[in-house]
Amino acid sequence: MWRLRLICGVLSVLVVLIAASGQGSAWAAAAQGTSSGAEVRIDNFSFTPQAITVKAGTTITWTNHDDIPHTVVSDDQLFKSKTLDTDDKFSTTLTKPGTYSYFCSIHPKMTGKVIVE
Question: What fold, for 36-116?
Fold first, then answer.
């Protein structure tokens, strides 16, 4: 029993140290298997988050959670999804730093931005 308490105590200290170092989200992402990826939700006629900052080489995945179809199209046509029905996903990997604005070609008022560092 004392070993279990010791392990729990050590884990608690690690969690506090990770959170304090600002690396908590990176560790959490790694624990979820998404350390090399970023997620954008399509829901209620919007991209969430509307702007996302990632490191070069990160794979960004959009998932349509709306009941109607949407697309993901960059302003410069660098990436373009097929029409995404409910729960469909689209992914792209951006390797060059810059700002990539995108929109839904079916609903052009839906816009988003990926900032690659």
Answer: Immunoglobulin-like (2.60.40)
pLDDT confidence of residue 3:
41
pLDDT tens profile 28-46 = 333 333 347 999 999 999 9
Residue 6, pLDDT above cutoff 90: no
Is 8 in a helix, a strand, or coil? helix
User: What's the full length of the chain, in residues?
Assistant: 117
pTM of the model: 0.70
If you search the block for the tokens 């469909």, which residue do you land on? Answer: 88
Residues 49 and 40: beta-carbon distance below 8 Å? yes
Name 85's Cβ contacts closer than 8 Å, sequence gap at least 6: 64, 69
Angle at 37 between CA 92 and CA 51, to 5 degrees: 75
The backbone torsions φ and ψ at residue 86, rounded to the nearest 5 degrees and listed phi first, read -55, 130
According to DSSP H, which parts of the chain are helical? 2-20, 24-31
Domain boundaries, the chain: 1-33, 36-116
C-alpha torsion 37→39→40→42, nearest 10: 130
